Amino acid sequence: MFLYLLVFVFAWLLYYFLTKSFNYWKDRQVCGPKPIPFFGNFKDVVLRKKHVGMLYNEMYKQYPDEKVVGLFRMTAPTLLIRDLDIAKQVLIKDFECFPDRATYYSKQGLGQNMFHCDLVTWKILRKRFTSVFTSSKFKSIFHLLVDRGDKFNNYIEDVTMKQPEQDVYNLMLKYTVSTIMVAGFGLDIDTFNDSRLFEIIDEEVKASFLSEVDIVFPGFLTQFNLSLLAKNTIQFCHEIVRTGISNQRLKTDIHNVMDVILSFKDKSDIYSTEKIKTDEKQPMVEVTDELLAAQAWVFYTAGNANNTLSLTYAMYHLARNPDVQEKLRQEIDEVLAKYDGKLTYEALKEMKYLDMAFEETLRMHPLTNGLVRSVAKDVRIEGIDATIDKDCIVVVSPYAIQHDEKYYPEPERFNPERFLPENIVDRHQCAFLPFGTGPRSCLGSQLARNQFGICVASLLSKFRVEPSNNTISCIQYDPWRMLLTPKERIRLNFIPRS
Length: 498
What we know:
Strand order of the largest sheet: 1-2-9-6
Distance between the termini: 85 Å
Mean pLDDT: 91
Largest sheet: 4 strands, mixed
Radius of gyration: 24 Å
Shape: globular
């Protein structure tokens, strides 16, 4: 009898622990679906039956008349933003109240990367790395990207002579890894003939169940020195730094990410350059091998994984929309003719339709599953009668917003002309968020445009892209991947132009 009583008490305490927060949104009169014990509203996400980005999209559509939707990710109250003005408050206006991304893991596991680190570390690092992401720096490395585009075309020509149908994701992975290694880290690596290592690293970019454990038990990952990243990925990023240091001597002129990392190498600490009161201690971050490798990870991933996906999706839509592909090809041919067939920085700037195709691709497939923010202090959300407590999670879903018919009629149709100047002049700042917006927006958006533009311009100048017998009819997303990655491989035919 005592054993039964003990089991009953334990079960009741467990139930209470897993459901004690479930009145959070009801008490604040915020609408949302009813949660279930342990899973909250994320059962299919936790069981990897559904990508979290698609869950946000479903919740967004279920409450069309609400400005916000109250969800529970496991036991954690999570506020999904539907209203664009509230999204602006979170991402821009009240940034100091929503400063980081609510994901923390060990420093040894690359947790100090600029994407996931705390606000103080982020401010110090971003200030240093911003110098790399300027128009003049992009212009100085443009020839390196063009060289990779030419080698990529030669590779496609070789492989399609044997087999026109190609796995587009694996094809684009070879190009994007090559470009980010040379442009970001100054490393000349032949990924066209040997890319297996990079494919293994790519396969490891998966959603970890440890993220759910950390939601139920906040601080679990940092306390037990655990990481969301695989050991191979961590070792790979350390090797990038070691190789970069051995291949390059410290320069006074900063050209790429590796140059910034090298500038940290001989320092024990990096201090903030912000002005502070005389009685305050200057914010700083300790320079360690783990800190350097963490930055290598975030820039490698941002420059490779995101662009591999955007190029894959672009090829898919161009193949399925031959009229768009032909219009784009005509623009490419006309501009290149003006520059004697050479793809220059100025030539790419003139390809306006190509840039619109880039933006339309990212509208349909914004890659990130959501712009997640942690509440740093109690804050009142504008437009609703509710105050959100410190440590609550707030989410803005680019996918849901960019597939809302209110902002983009016929959202499932690939139409680059949505981004004509006259069509975007009155568009809300938060209606297009593939790179985020505000202080914590992506640093590499212009590099991504260059990588994308050079690849597409080079490729379409020599090839047509067509569906094959194995091309999927619609895209579904893999619930095991962190980014919005196709569940099935996309296969297309690459046909040389006569």
